[in-house]
Write a structure and sequence with these properties.
homodimer; alpha/beta; five-stranded mixed β-sheet
């Protein structure tokens, strides 16, 4: 989660993500929607794209995704399609919604409807993640 | 929808998408997950990325998305974030699920939870879209 917070802070956005296998960090990414003119360029999506390209495969089972903010249904679905094992987030959607408009569907609820359920847990270093929202949202 | 069906057929995948404003077609795209090693490269996502890059903006309001298959929550959320006006699909998720595993959340249901609701209607040229599923899924 530290790596996700650092990449977000570096890009001056509340949104950072990191993909790791066990203790080994593979990729980090920040939200780049504005700079790429790409509404899909959320941090989690960018991290998944980067790792898929790096490993030359779409199946990312065995990996854990860390993200500063609970993933929206776009990013949660991408995690499901990528067959990621587990996902840990900082601030939850109710907290993010105090700063920015959100799609009101929780990540764990979406995972339950999935063919590849992803283990989801939140509120990890959430005070630091909330500070990112306060600074950059 | 014809353009979405054609691009899907050309790429030998059930999944094609097109973005248009009124009668003017702007971009088409097909699913490219396998060839790009990108689990997020669904047809609708690729079309949205392409149009954002072309227009140099993330706000695609005024556009209509046509897609051969009802969008999964990733693609539906991307349409919501891109502020697309309306979305028309061919086969619905129950039909796609007869061929391929799906996340069981309907597009219209997700749109209702959204800050930017997208008008959603389905079963457009669905027999032709079903044939794509039968041929390529």
């Amino acid at each position: 989660m530290r790596a996700a917070i650092e990449i977000a802070d570096k890009h001056q956005t509340p949104f950072g993500a990191a993909l790791a296998m066990g203790d080994q960090l593979f990729v980090t990414a920040a939200n780049q929607t504005a700079e790429l003119n790409d509404p899909t360029a959320h941090a989690e999506i960018m991290a998944i794209r980067k790792l898929g390209e790096h490993l030359k495969k779409t199946n990312l089972s065995g990996f854990t995704l860390y993200t500063t903010c609970e993933p929206c249904p776009m990013c949660m679905s991408a995690s499901i399609w990528a067959k990621i094992d587990a996902l840990f987030y900082g601030c939850d959607i109710p907290t993010i919604s105090q700063f920015l408009g959100q799609i009101q569907l929780r990540a764990s609820s979406l995972s339950k409807n999935s063919i590849n359920p992803v283990y989801v847990a939140g509120n990890i270093l959430d005070e630091e993640c909330r500070q990112l929202l306060a600074n950059y949202a």
